[in-house]
Amino acid sequence: MTDELLVTRAQLGERAALAQLVARWRMPVWTYVRRMLDAERADDVAQEVWLAVVRGLPRLREPGRFAPWLFTIARRSVTDRLRGEYALVEETSAFGDLVGEAGAEDPAEALVDRAALVSVLADLPLLEREILVLFYLEDLPVEECADICQIPAGTVKSRLSRARRLLREHLKEKGYRP
Amino acid sequence: MTEEPRLSAQDMIDRLSPVLSLRTRIRAVAALLAGVAGAVFMGTLWWTEPGPLPGRTHLAFALFTVFCLAWAAYGGWLLTRRIPLFATDQVIAAWIGLVASLTTTAVVTVVAVQRGAGVGLPSAAGGVFVAVALALVVRAQARRAALLRRKHELTGREER
């Protein structure tokens, strides 16, 4: 059953459809939240996300776009917890986006092993970590990542490029060889 | 990546159930309707009170009206921000609202007539409430019908 059908049924008030949506998206939401926050806060924030999802679901106008809507809510909850950290990195990221643009299409950086990715994610800066989680762990397309992070698609690509570079450097430091 | 969330899907649904419970929704709808109806009723009594009133009575009427409006605002806030009303709930709530508007209008008009005040103002005010409630019924029905149509389309597409 597609997400759109499940969301439509949930919007009609079918409790079973809502339960199925929670069951289907619980892990992806938790994975995103956990990669952005420590274990202590991850469960609380994941619950907060689902509460906001249930409250907002009747007002969701495009059931076909459930995933980006869900991650936008998740991002908002995470941002609330990391407000200070986000403000700091947003200020310093503008220059980095310009620098990163040049190498955005480097095919050598295209593949990243998921397990290796998870093992070093916590060492990466917030914005780069976030974009890797959304793009690689959640398998969201660039356009949806752009919607969720409220940045242009070009910035997503440059941020991804920079994130891959940082990731590779961290992997090398840890002795990982692709 | 062996780490797992502490809450299972069932735990999560259990934690969401207070927000989804029927009782919570009924309470919110009741607060809104009772608040609005009470405020209208108080306003009518105040307006139709014969003869000049002492200041203390004016204050009492004003306080009762504000009290009712506060309940209405609380119910409205619950329904728009805290408690999800799904399409079917919205249809039921809109019909309850329509019945409550009609009843309040009838009661207020009768009170105004019995007290010798004109029926113009209560009927006009009641008419506005009934019109708003009717519009909400139409909107809720249309939204539910659209969702049902989409559900059948998507179900048909998946079965093919």
From TrEMBL, chain A:
Q: The RNA polymerase sigma-70 region domain covers which part of the protein? A: 21-84
Q: Which domain of life is it from?
A: Bacteria
Start and end of every RNA polymerase sigma factor 70 region 4 type domain? 116-167
Keywords, comma-separated and alphabetical = DNA-binding, Sigma factor, Transcription, Transcription regulation
Question: Which SUPFAM superfamilies does the record match to this protein?
Answer: Sigma2 domain of RNA polymerase sigma factors, Sigma3 and sigma4 domains of RNA polymerase sigma factors
One family from Pfam that matches here is Sigma70_r2
Query: Per its UniProt record, what PANTHER family does this chain match?
Result: RNA POLYMERASE ECF-TYPE SIGMA FACTO, RNA POLYMERASE SIGMA FACTOR HI_1459-RELATED
> What NCBIfam families does the record point to?
sigma70-ECF
Which family does the record claim for this protein? Answer: Belongs to the sigma-70 factor family. ECF subfamily.
Name of the featured protein: Sigma-70 family RNA polymerase sigma factor
This chain's source organism reads Microbispora triticiradicis
UniProtKB/TrEMBL annotation, chain B:
Sorted UniProt keywords = Membrane, Transmembrane, Transmembrane helix
TM segment ranges: 28-47, 59-79, 91-113, 119-140
Protein name, UniProt field:
Transmembrane transport protein
Name its species.
Answer: Microbispora triticiradicis
